[in-house]
Amino acid sequence: MAKRLYKVENDKKLLGVCGGLAEYFNTDPTIVRVAWAIFTVLSFGTAILIYILCALIFPSKSEVEPSENKSEEQQ
Questions:
Q1: Are 51 and 36 in contact (CB under 8 A)?
Q2: Rounded CA gap, 14 and 18, in Å?
Q3: Closest by CA position to 36, among listed 56, 13, 18, 52
Q4: Using CA atoms, how far apart are residues 13 and 57, in angstroms rounded to an integer?
Q5: Which of 18, 24, 51, 75 can bridge 32 by disulfide, Cβ–Cβ 3.0-4.6 Å?
Q6: Is the pLDDT of residue 74 over 80?
Q7: Which domain holds residue 69?
Q8: Which secondary-structure segment (H or E) carries 29?
């Protein structure tokens, strides 16, 4: 299965966007959060709008990767 961007539902601070990006790039979520905060300051707040758009566009992890229990119930 191809890698997909999504929002995480556990270990999230706001809406799960940075956690999802961290899983996509296989890195620590704290690094992504710090980088996003720096980007927000350097972009004079434009990154906040981008974060909100990502939160609206990215699907949740449960929508992308359904749990094993759901697939067992369908069989």
A1: yes
A2: 9
A3: 18
A4: 18
A5: 18
A6: no
A7: 17-74
A8: helix 29-42
**Within 10 A of 6 (CB to CB), how many other CB atoms are there?**
21
Q: Does 41 map to a domain? A: yes
19: CB partners within 8 A, 6+ apart = 7, 8, 11, 12, 13, 29, 32
SS3 7: strand
Phi, psi (5° rounding) for residue 24?
-65, -45
Q: Residue 22: inside a domain, yes or no?
A: yes
Residue 62, in any domain of the structure: yes
In this predicted model, what pLDDT tens digit does every residue of 6-34 receive, in sequence order? 999 888 888 999 999 999 999 999 999 99
pTM score above 0.85: no
pLDDT tens for each residue of 31-63: 999 999 999 999 998 999 999 999 999 999 988
Does residue 8 lie within any of the structural domains?
no
In the 8-state DSSP scheme, what is residue 59? P
